[in-house]
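Consider this record:
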Amino acid sequence: MAIRVLLVDDQPLLRTGFRMILEAEQDIAVVGEAGDGLQALDQVRALQPDVVLMDIRMPRMDGVEATRQITGPGRDGPAKVLVLTTFDLDEYVVEALRAGASGFLLKDAPADELVQAIRVVAGGEAMLAPSITRRLLDKYATHLPSGDEPVPDVLHTLTDREVEVLKLVARGLSNAEIAADLFVSETTVKTHVGHVLTKLGLRDRVQAAVYAYESGLVRPGAQ
């Protein structure tokens, strides 16, 4: 079945461009559009999309609050949110990730990246592009822990290998890249990632990456 996508952006021309790109794909169907967060909530309830392509800055209700209501407790459907941001990265992107977004994408990303991101998010994975992650973390470096603070006790529930995996996830590496780095199978990496998410009470890789930095496990600029 086709992936049902809802386009949310306050610029009609951008929505039209996204629609043209996505409707050229046989496995993707654009089921609706919205110009702000309030309209997005109504459309999600009415149309039950699989993925919501969500802008951040919009009138009436911004993308952060809309994301929180779409993915939070008592949500009406299984919709995943893929956040759209500008090249210089919006200051609200971290809040959108905390609110429940499954990833973020640059508005000027190539068409194939947009299509792939929607497929990844629809499949239950998180979209964590290393290049965007690095710029995001650099932008917020002054607001993240310095690394001198004690790490939360919950991190001590992780095995040494799970800590290694979490650090690599925070760097934006895919399962295949982590497997190559640690000389293990991709299946083993998936198992470790699953254990990390369960033990830390996190939803996906995006939340895991943010948690790793906010907890002080990984420091901005560290390799």
